[in-house]
Amino acid sequence: xxxxxxxxxxxxxxxxxxxxxxxxxxxxxxxxxxxxxxxxxxxxxxxxxxxxxxxxxxxxxxxxxxxxxxxxxxxxxxxxxxxxxxxxxxxxxxxxxxxxxxxxxxxxxxxxx
Length: 113
Ligand code: 5GP
Ligand code: ZN
Prior knowledge:
alpha+beta, HIT family, subunit A, five-stranded antiparallel sheet, binds guanosine-5'-monophosphate, binds zinc ion
């Protein structure tokens, strides 16, 4: 298994985990782009959004609700936050195990660079 996020999910590579459940692991990004920069990583290996199948719909919904709860618990519900996933080259995807970035704590530019 060469996938770095599968190794993090399995506990074989250390990461600063802030939430774990039967479907997800949430960790701090190693190279934070905002005061809050978490990665919500499904335990299931899915390369990116192109590989999501109907059986994953509950997982993807659960991930969004966990992200909203974490953002709320950290005090960012009113100020705002961004939940984003990159798919392939033009979007800058560098790890091909699907993950959603949860960014908050500063004004985030739109459109993104
Ligand atoms: P992508 O570019 O695929 O959308 O996002 C990959 C993210 O994973 C980047 O923000 C990068 O900093 C983060 N990352 C890559 N390797 C590791 C790691 O080993 N540990 C943690 N915590 N984050 C990582
Ligand atoms: Zn993986």
